[in-house]
Write a structure and sequence with these properties.
The chain has about 150 residues and is α+β, with helices and mostly antiparallel strands. It is built from five helices and six strands. About 40% of the residues lie in helices and about 15% in strands. Bound molecules: zinc ion (2 copies).
Length: about 150
């Protein structure tokens, strides 16, 4: 989903962390680099596994700590799809890479989607209700193509 004009999130995250006084730790950098390459949210376990597969051993407690730090600075969005497992994805400044989610209630797959009409509809609701929306996330639950009951 990376667009040429989108800010490089990892660079942005490192600058934000540095300006807040965080040191550029190895484990933190590893988690940031990994999240930067994901098109959608990942759980701490998936992040730990992906790091291990890439030859980086970062303990789960450390992954959780880094995700908490990033969350507290607004650098990641936490997504709860109802299975009790928090997933995190990079949050770009200015809402770049903004997308919504499809969740398969059978296999648990999480898929990103975007829709201009949906964004317009949400802005219309904001105007109508005179409500200043800071953020929104639309999650659609159902069955993915692999799991859809055949009819
Ligand atoms: Zn996502
Ligand atoms: Zn599925």
């Amino acid at each position: 989903m990376a667009k040429a004009d989108a800010p490089v999130w990892a660079q942005y995250a490192h600058e934000r962390l540095a300006s807040t006084g965080f040191r550029r730790g190895g484990a933190r950098s590893a988690v940031i680099e990994l999240l930067d390459g994901q098109e959608c949210a990942r759980s701490a376990i998936e992040i730990e596994d992906a790091l291990k597969a890439g030859g980086r051993r970062v303990g789960r407690a450390t992954v959780y700590r880094v995700l908490d730090e990033l969350d507290s600075l607004g650098l990641v969005t936490r997504i709860d799809i109802g299975d009790g497992l928090a997933r995190y994805e990079a949050m770009y400044p200015g809402g770049a890479q903004h997308h919504h989610h499809l969740v398969c209630d059978d296999c648990g797959k999480l898929m990103p989607f975007t829709d201009d009409e949906l964004e317009r509809a949400i802005r219309r609701v904001a105007r109508r209700e005179a409500f200043a929306i800071n953020d929104h996330d639309v999650t659609l639950h159902g069955f993915c193509p692999d799991c859809a009951p055949s009819s």
